[in-house]
């Protein structure tokens, strides 16, 4: 019988390349994430350039002896997804690539144990029990890195402090105490070489925002947008999305909103529930299945709030006009997606895209007594927001695309749900149709065999495809667009084996919607 062997060095190098930042920055953020997941409220970092040592000590729960033994195994973890930032059991292993030795000491329930670990060869990373060096006081864990490079950035206190502020911004800003207080009830304090890092002071031109998911009374995410009078550095410009205090990504592309002066706008939005949707490297969010649906639901709600704030500032770039050929299929999609959402739940959030989140908003007819149930988009931050548990259910939506579109057209801002309701009631309470979330845009990808692709909540149709050109020439562009949308949604709504069934169901509903409109006109 054969035995599977692992080229450990090659595996660690592949894991390193999967992270967007430098190796040193990745090692540091992974150690800090583990400290936060252990319930620590104080994390102390000490650099010793003369000895090439970096020591990180936290006062968390610590590990028992058997847990420390498993700590050295690849992909071994005792954490549950969504209950912390780390869950894969691979991050700390990257320290073997940059260190001569990794010493770990932990204290739990009065028991103190320690180990020493290093990469000996391509296939071996032995570790051994050692005498505890006494780095931890009563409880917690200490990690000491004996770095191979005496000029490593990890020995620079300025680099360490900058990485903490950049990757754990929400923990350094009092704005997020309300939503992170349940996760970190005692707060989190960082010290570098004995000096406590000061918390940030909010700027004057800062607008607080609260994000509410459909059918949720309490805010699911809190944050702020801020305008400055000068151009920001690349790592500071744009909206950052954070979960459990760790910034996952920053910029404008992921949000699909294009401001007039993107280099002078910044902001951070904290959504603790998105910890369930993190990818392995914690640099992005999953786009497939229920976790992908959760991320896209949050993205859509954040998009509405940010677009509304930018519009109030006069910084929202106007959307480019869509092609006339796309308008009929977009109108049909409203009916098709509402019907399909009952059979394919992951499409539901593509329907629940109108500000306020309700799929159908009953505003009452003549003599009606039912009052509308409204969900404001961006209420004041002073309203006492509360956190959302990571396991709390949210609206479902399809997801699964790994790369954002290079030039996604921003969605125009829409009026708040309360304003729409009041205007409708003033006109006699006439029902207004719900708006769908799916957008239809065009792009040229010569040589690409795919008809379309789904990016976030936009279907990008390949207008350079020979089939599209023939459809235009034969005046059957509408059917081609319907088929392109169905093919783009199929991988996200169902398993691959059921893709044909979904496409057939989609085209059936699309045909029925077109026939129903003709009948009503007659």
What does this structure look like?
- This protein is of the alpha+beta class.
- The protein has two domains: 8-196, Histidine kinase-like ATPase, C-terminal domain (Heat Shock Protein 90); 207-521, no CATH class.
- It has helices at 8-18, 23-37, 65-71, 95-98, 157-167, 169-172, 177-180, 289-313, 326-343, 348-351, 417-426, 466-473, 477-493, 499-521; strands spanning 42-48, 53-58, 99-108, 111-117, 127-129, 140-147, 189-192, 195-196, 206-211, 221-227, 238-243, 246-251, 265-270, 439-443, 452-455, 458-462.
- It has an eight-stranded mixed sheet. The chain has a five-stranded mixed sheet with strand order 9-10-13-11-12. Strands 14-16-15 form a three-stranded mixed sheet, covered by helices on one side.
- A hairpin with a 4-residue loop joins β1 (42-48) and β2.
- It is globular.
């Amino acid at each position: 019988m054969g035995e599977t062997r692992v080229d450990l060095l090659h595996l660690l190098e592949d894991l390193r390349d999967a992270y967007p930042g430098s190796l040193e920055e990745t090692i540091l953020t992974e150690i800090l994430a583990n400290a936060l997941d252990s319930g620590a409220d104080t994390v102390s970092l000490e650099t010793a350039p003369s000895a090439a040592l970096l020591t990180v000590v936290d006062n968390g729960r610590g590990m028992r002896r058997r847990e420390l033994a498993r700590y050295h195994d690849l992909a071994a973890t005792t954490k549950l997804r969504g209950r912390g930032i780390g869950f894969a059991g691979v991050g700390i292993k990257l320290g073997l690539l940059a260190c001569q030795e990794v010493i770990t000491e932990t204290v739990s329930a009065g028991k103190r144990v320690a180990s020493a670990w290093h990469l000996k060869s391509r296939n071996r990373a032995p570790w051994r029990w050692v005498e505890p060096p006494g780095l931890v006081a009563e409880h917690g864990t200490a990690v000491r890195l004996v770095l191979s490079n005496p000029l490593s950035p990890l020995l620079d206190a300025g680099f360490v402090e900058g990485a903490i502020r950049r990757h754990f911004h929400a923990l350094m800003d009092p704005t997020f105490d309300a939503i992170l207080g349940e996760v970190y009830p005692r707060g989190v304090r960082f010290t570098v070489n004995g000096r406590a890092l000061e918390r940030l002071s909010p700027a004057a031109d800062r607008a607080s925002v609260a994000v509410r998911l459909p059918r949720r009374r309490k805010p699911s995410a809190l944050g702020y947008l801020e305008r400055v009078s000068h151009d920001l550095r690349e790592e500071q410009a744009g909206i950052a999305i954070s979960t459990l205090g760790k910034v996952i990504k920053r910029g404008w592309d992921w949000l699909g909103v294009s401001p007039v002066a993107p280099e002078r706008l910044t902001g951070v939005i904290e959504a603790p529930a998105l910890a369930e949707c993190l990818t392995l490297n914690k640099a992005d969010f999953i786009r497939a299945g229920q976790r992908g649906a959760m991320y896209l639901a949050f993205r859509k709600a954040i998009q509405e709030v940010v677009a509304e704030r930018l519009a109030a500032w006069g910084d929202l770039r106007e959307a480019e006009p869509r092609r006339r050929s796309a308008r009929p299929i977009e109108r049909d999609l409203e009916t098709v997606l509402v019907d399909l959402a009952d059979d394919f739940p992951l499409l539901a959030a593509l329907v629940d895209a109108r500000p306020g989140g309700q799929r159908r908003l009953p505003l009452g007819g003549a003599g009606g007594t039912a009052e509308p149930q409204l969900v404001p988009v961006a209420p004041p931050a002073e309203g006492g927001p509360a956190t959302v548990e990571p396991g709390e259910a949210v609206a479902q939506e399809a997801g699964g695309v790994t790369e954002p579109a290079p030039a996604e057209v921003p969605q125009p801002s829409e009026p708040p749900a309360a304003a729409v309701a009041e205007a409708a009631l003033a006109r006699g309470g006439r029902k207004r149709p719900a708006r769908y979330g799916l957008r239809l845009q065009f792009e040229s990808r010569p040589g690409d065999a795919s008809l379309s692709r789904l990016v976030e909540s936009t279907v990008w149709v390949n207008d350079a495809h020979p089939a599209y050109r023939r459809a235009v020439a034969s005046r059957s562009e509408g059917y081609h667009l319907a088929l392109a949308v169905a093919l783009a949604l199929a991988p996200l709504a169902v398993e691959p084996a059921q893709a044909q069934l979904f496409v057939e169901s989609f085209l059936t509903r699309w045909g029925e919607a077109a026939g129903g409109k003709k009948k009503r006109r007659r």
